[in-house]
Amino acid sequence: QISCPENIYMFAGLFQLLIIDNFSAFITFIVGIFAFIVYRLEKNDGERSSAKIVMEELRAIERDVDRLKNAGNLIDIVPTNLSTFGWNNNRHVIVKFLDYDEVLQLGQFFERTEVLKDVLNQWRNHYYLTMQQKSSIVLQQLVQFALQKKYPKDMRKKLKEVFEEDSYWFEPFSYKDHIKKTLELMQPISTSTIGDKIKKISNKSWYQLRIV
Question: Is the Cβ–Cβ distance between 204 and 47 less than 8 Å?
Answer without folding.
Answer: yes
